[in-house]
Amino acid sequence: MPCQPFTRFVASARRWLGIGLLALTGAAGADEHAPLRVMTDYWPPFRIEGADGRISGLDMDLLAELERRTGLRFEVHRAPWARGLAALQSGAADLMTGLARTPEREHYIDYLPLPYYSCAPRLYASPQVAPAIARYDDLLGPTIGYVLESAYFEPFDSDKRLKKFGVNNETQLLQMLALGRLQLVIGTDCQVDYELRDPQLARQIVRTRFQPDSRTDLYLGFSHQRPLTAERQLIEGALRQMLDEGWVQRAAWRYQAASGN
Question: What is the pTM of this model?
């Protein structure tokens, strides 16, 4: 039989071990249920500004379905696109949606392997200017509006010869183009064509003759600064299942039908 002091030591050790495990379990549980911080900006029809200030759209539908399938929670914060990317780079945010994949971003973004949607970069101008933009070299003259920190196509993104003017979002680009403050803008067909549902805007803005032969895949991406391996695996599995089921395409079709495209 063990001596009495040793027995008391074992009992005390078990008690403290139990308290330690309970504390660890509680901390893990709190962390497990903490919402993931998502940075985003308005980009119809993916992120639409509501009358009450709430964000709706395809990406919000996507996040809601991922919540339902995984049990995770998302906390969406709106900020200019460049600021959202900076938050992802610093680890102040966990993930973003609607991300184009570039070598530079891969240094700080852990992309899910499958894109969930695809758009095309497109150039727009007034009906008077658009016919004159017939080839890539015609881009060398006019000032071209673009969204800061966006990726469109090569060689456009890295071409130092072009006169570019950066703004926070594509809606701002279209407003400046309609007012004659920009001669040319670049955007994506998914977003700009959705905005051109407005008949008045559609009379002022059209596609140019030259259009790049390029597509832009859209991804979900996590910050490399945030160790979220389990959450990433859950989201990747759920998204893959949604794509296989055609869920994303059906959800997108509702917005395409609303825009008449």
Answer: 0.80
